[in-house]
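Throughout this chapter, every protein is written as a compact record of paired, labelled lines. The reader may check this reading against the record printed directly beneath this paragraph:
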Amino acid sequence: MKSNEQTYRVILSGGGTGGHIYPAISIAKEFHKRNPNAAILFVGAKDKMEMQKVPQAGFDIKGLWIAGLQRKLTLKNALFPIKLVWSLLHSVFIILKFKPNVAIGTGGFASGAVIKMASLMGVPTLVQEQNSYPGITNKLLGKKANLVCVAYPNLEKFFPKGIVKLTGNPVRADLISLSENNAEAKLHFKLDANKKTILVLGGSLGARRINQLIEKELPFFEDNSIQLVWQCGKLYKDDYFKYNSASVVVLDFIDRMDLAYSAADFIISRSGASSVSELCLVGKPIVFIPSPNVAEDHQTKNAQAIASNNGAILIKESELESEFKKQMESLFTDVSLQNKLSDNCKKMGLPNATSDIVDAVEEILKQNK
């Protein structure tokens, strides 16, 4: 659907984490590619990573004075009502000035304020829910949205009838055409082409419990002739860079994730929404170790959605001592299990998510012209 001659005005809002920001940026880029004359404005939370990442991607952004509620009693929680009212009023000002034709929310508290006010002011809204269990913000916004794009089936029970569309989560374009040249990718990381490789992912900041686990099990991997590409995260590089060796590559950040995925024979990862969507497209045998420290236990629910369809192995942090070695030994030796996990995981991948979401945005614009 091409609409290049039309000058649309689009607000996108989502932030706080990469899982909210990068899908919004992917949607913006695809919409702008189809509609070069479109005016696109992001709205995020001041002092959060979107205030840097969005301008780096080439888009304008306005910041709201908003933050989520903390899990314990703090001064920040006492300020929350004031921040919320201020953000709602500021959102009204932004909407009146920008005059959007559509507003798109990808999650986070900033998106809650601006998408709520856009809806009340008669602006068509689209909500993109990345997780297998919707967060509080998106459940509230979905009640008045024109459409809710979801990444997992069977989410109709959380939203009004007839507005849910299964699209998947936007992922990086380089993963859709992922190289299958495992040997070449291993060469990039200076790995042994004849050894099996585990890619360990704890996110850009790192995952303390996964790092502790990998450190403890280094002799186990060596005994099984397994080499590692280990993303320890920037918070932990000083603790773990000492383990770099011929068979252990420790990195705080991986620039070429496409090559890291290609080099991997197995993957150990957290199960944030964006990570799960990427890994389904990659289609390698995955062991998910969800973070238990996220709102509404989203990561466990995301991992269960894949594991319940025999697309991954799920090990909770509380079960690592008893289950990790046993599950990994089974995975290393059982080729039929490896193939089953890969095949079922790939079936759950939705590579056209960004395009499908922008199709939906353009349909909303067409209906509300």
The chain is about 45% helix and 15% strand. The CA atoms of residues 170 and 354 lie 5 Å apart.
